[in-house]
Amino acid sequence: KFKVAAKKWEARPDGQMSLPVETACGAVAGGLAGFLTTPLDVMKTLLQTQVKKPSGAISTGSSTTTMTQKYYVGIWDGLKWNLKHHGVISGLFRGVGPRVFWTSLQSALMFVIYEQALHLQENMRHFGQWPYSSSGAFGSS
Questions:
Q1: Where are the Solcar repeats (predicted)?
Q2: Residue 15 in contact with residue 7, Cβ under 8 Å?
Q3: Could you count the other beta carbons within 10 Å of the beta carbon of residue 26?
Q4: Torsion-angle region of residue 15: left (phi > 0), alpha (psi -120 to 50) or beta?
Q5: SS3 of 107, please?
Q6: Which stretch of DSSP H or E encloses residue 95?
Q7: Sign of CA dihedral 29, 1, 36, 44
């Protein structure tokens, strides 16, 4: 959807997007996906890294409280426990900034490479060089 909107916004005569617009389109789409999937990624990470029957002291600012860490038996169990004890932001959106940055960067790069490959294929088809050229390895013998 971002690609369609970007093409309408840029309105180039050749119907293509410029490199900065391609990059921004990929970055926005990737960043949004990274943000929206952060809560489940946090829960997945907690499930993968938890230790059986943990317990210990948890520091809450100036005081230290002894609290037994919950052993999650599934995503829903972990979501409920995290929301109750840590809240929405600190419980489910831990690391959202670096995650959005990283997914934006990855998606921008991937989108630009993908779009450039499509342009290359389109040009090769236009000049009769795709999928096989007569002088290439797959030419007739």
A1: 17-120
A2: yes
A3: 25
A4: left
A5: helix
A6: none
A7: negative
